[in-house]
Structure formats: structure tokens, C-alpha cells
Amino acid sequence: MLQRSAHQRSPRRKRFLGLSSKGATWGALWATYGYAVEAHAAEPARLEWVRLEGAGSCIDAAELEARVARRLGHDVFDPRASRSIEGVARRTGNVWHAQIAVRAHRADPNPPLRELESTAADCESLGDAVVLAVALAIDPAAAFSDAAPKAPNPPKPVETAKVRPPASATRAVPLSLSGRAELSLASQIGLLPQASLGVGLGAAATLTNRFELGLGARAFPEVSVAGDPSYAVGLATLTVQLCGVARPAHVVELRGCAGPALGLLHAAVLKGDRTQPGQRPSFGAELGLDAAFAMTPTLAIGFGVRAAVPLTRYRFTLQGSDHALFVQSAIAGMAHIGLELRFGAGK
Predict the structure, then answer these.
(1) 148 near 71, Cβ under 8 Å?
(2) 203 and 117 in one domain?
(3) Is 298 part of a structural domain of the chain?
(4) I want to staple 190 with a disulfide (CB 3.0 to 4.6 A). Which of 156, 236, 267, 332 is the partner?
(5) Is the distance from CB of 247 to CB of 208 less than 8 angstroms?
(6) Is the backbone peptide bond immediately before 149 cis, with ω within 30 degrees of 0?
(7) Among candidate residues 122, 45, 29, the one with its CA nearest the CA of residue 86
(8) What are the average pLDDT values for consecutive 10-residue runs of the chain, which has 347 residues?
(9) How many domains would you assign to the chain?
(10) Same domain, 309 and 225
């Protein structure tokens, strides 16, 4: 903004003053007088002010505009003005420096340049000189007006005693529950003597954006096996699963789930007296992957597969015989497809 080589600066326009902390304001008045008289009084100007490294404590652009406006009695800065006042502040060693140029129009190739210095301990005196210099560049009559007083510090807020509201005025904020409910068609292989279909019902609550806790129930009706003797075995299970959730797309949700499963096996011989069923509790573990595709903000279609590991593998035999009618597989499989209803903030 103010980068010009020494041979480009006009000796007639450039003046340099070394100012002490007490003489900075009067030095600025004298230094800027040479170009202030060439300016039109109160002509709007565009201010461009930069503080370089080491000059962060100097006056900033907003304060500079405000103090100049108070000194002149009105706001004369307009970012659309063709005439501009450009300045730079910096610190070199123990000396504060400021350069100010007044460009008559945007294409002015050789604006007058003024340099100010202060050896004060802080940048306040240089800031006062810059305010006066900029005010003079806008209106030469500013030299004969009193400097505007600095705005008083705002009064410190009075601390008031904190009053605890009465218990009757305190209302509990209801928790926001989000999750999903699911109704599905399930299938199994290895848990019963033959592959079969069943129904599933589940629900899950959102724990975080990445995890949910689910509860599911499945019922597989009795599967009949012809033979001598003929028999039937059915299964009902209840599972608790922790699922990790990923959303690779806006309408796609992937879940990896694992957890324990409790079950009840029901076996019966089909010939003769059927009043002698055998019921056995079972315990196992499940590990699976689900995918859900949203059709609406609240409704999705879901698919899933599970690997089931029965930890209690019963041998179903006839009384008086060691021949096993049925033994569950060491690793069984399940799959499901269904509709998911989503609710709460996570839908």
C-alpha cells in the first residue's frame, strides 16, 4: 500500500520528523500541514490503516476513525470514496514509526508521504499524532480545534447476589429419546433340524451418534421332521445387542452388532402321546451386520445377517435310546428383512 522506493518520493512532499513522547502531537501538526492545505475541507475519504509486527498495541483502524470523527465533529469516512488516506504503523527497536499517505484518487501514482516517530515507552503518543495527522488531511481547520476527549471507561458492572429460584419454579427438562422400532421376517439355519422362517420384533435406543443399544425377540415355529419317530422342534430367542453405527450416505445406515442371546427350545414327538414335550433353555452369542435404507425421514427398510453360536447344545434323544434325534450346529446362521420406524432426534 505504501511501498515506494526512495527515488519515487518527491522531496517537496516528503518530510520526516523524530518526535519525543511529548512532542509527537505538535510534530504531526507541522508535518502534515504541507499536504493538508491542498485537501478539500471535509471531503470524504477512505481509510486504510495497517499495524505491522511489533505495533499491535498501537491505535487500530476502528479507533482511529472514531477519534478523527469526534475531532472533526462528524463522520467523514466512506469506503466507497475515491480519495484515500493510507497508513502503516510499526516498531523498530525502541522507536515507534508511522507512515501516512493521502491519495487524491485511486490512480494517483505519487501521493504525498509523511513519516512520524516516537520514542515513548508506549504507542499512545504516536497514536495521538496519527489522529491529528489524519484529521488535518481531511480538514485543515482541525488544527485549531481541541482534541476530542477519550471516551470514558465504562463503569464496572455491579455484582448482584444470585437468587436461587424457588423449587416450584424449577421444571425438569424431559429427556429426548431417539431410536427405532423394527418388525421383520426372520430365517434360520442350524438352530433347528431344518431351515425355517419366523418373525422378529426389535427396538433400539440411540446412545451416541455412533452407538445404540438394542433389544430383539424372534420366534421360529416348530419344524417337523418325518421319520421313525417323527418329531418337531421350535425356538424362541431374546437378544441384547450393542451396535456400532456408520452412515456412509444420507439415506444409508450400517450397523455392526454383537451381544448375548437367551432362548427356549421346544421339542415334541409327533406320534402317540404328544403331551410329553421337552423344553430346554439355551444360551448363546450373536454377531452380525445390518443395513438400513431410509425411504422417508421416519421409515426405513432393513436387512441383516447374524452368526449365532449356541453355548448350550442339547442332544434330543428318545427315552431309552442313545440315538440323538437332533443336535444344534456349533455355528448357526440367521437373516432378516423388515421395516424400521425411527423416532426422536436421531430419525
Answers:
(1) yes
(2) no
(3) yes
(4) 332
(5) no
(6) no
(7) 45
(8) 40 42 45 45 80 90 90 85 88 90 81 87 91 84 57 58 54 67 95 94 93 95 84 91 92 95 86 62 94 94 95 74 78 95 75
(9) 2
(10) yes
For the chain, list the strands marked E by DSSP.
Answer: 15-16, 46-51, 84-92, 95-103, 113-118, 179-189, 196-206, 211-225, 231-249, 252-269, 278-294, 299-310, 315-317, 324-327, 332-343
Residue showing cell 453360536: 309
Instruction: State the CATH number of the domain containing residue 191.
Output: 2.40.160.20
What cell numbers appear for 59 in the block?
491505535
344: left (phi over 0), alpha (psi -120 to 50) or beta: left
User: Does residue 156 form part of some domain?
Assistant: no
N- to C-terminal Cα separation, the chain: 54
Do residue 303 and residue 199 come from a single domain? yes
Q: What is the DSSP letter of 251?
A: T
My answer on whether 124 and 195 are in the same domain is no
269-282: string of b/e by CB count within 10 Å (b at 16+)? beeeeeeeeeeeeb
Regarding whether 216 and 271 lie in a shared domain, the answer is yes
Structural domain range at position 77:
14-144
Same domain for 113 and 246?
no
Can you name the residues that pair with 118 across neighbouring β-strands?
96
